[in-house]
Amino acid sequence: MTDAAPLDQVFCYGTLLPGEERWHYLEPYVLAQDEDQASGRLYDTGLGYPAALFDQVGVIHGMVFTIDRLRRDEALDLLDEIEGAVAGLYHRVSLVTALGRNAYGYQFGGGIEGLTAITHGRWLDRNPQL
User: Is 39 part of a structural domain of the chain?
Assistant: First the structure.
């Protein structure tokens, strides 16, 4: 999907969430945040970060962050870099969340072989022993 103007909202579901290891990259750009969901399936890569496929049936729990429009391009360039979008590990895609927000999300660019499905769709609850 091609947008007429860049979006100022980003849906995050893993290590970019508050309290997670990559939150400090996103935090300086965030003006507001809300819990939300997106359609898709979440997987544990076994490497300390999740993989989302928004074109599958299921629910992914996460948060939508509103990014400062004056710093939007800077924020998206940084997120593209740390999410491996340039190398193809993840792709920035447009999506509509359960609350009807148009947002960017990062979709996994590889196959699911060797990944473990997180059937409940919540990265923060990925460890079934807890």
Answer: yes
pTM: 0.91
- Please tell me whether residue 81 adopts helix, strand or coil conformation: helix
What the block records as the tokens of 48 is 């300390």
65 and 10 in contact (C-beta within 8 Å)?
A: yes
Q: For residue range 24-36, what is the model confidence (pLDDT) as tens digits?
A: 999 999 999 999 9
The number of domains in the chain is: 1
What are the residues facing 53 on neighbouring strands? Answer: 41
Q: Is 126 part of any domain? A: no
Other residues' Cβ atoms within 10 Å of the Cβ of residue 38 = 25
CATH of the domain at 64: 3.10.490.10
Among 52, 70, 64, which Cα is nearest to 106's?
52
Q: Which domain holds residue 44?
A: 9-121
Distance CA 53, CA 124 (A): 17
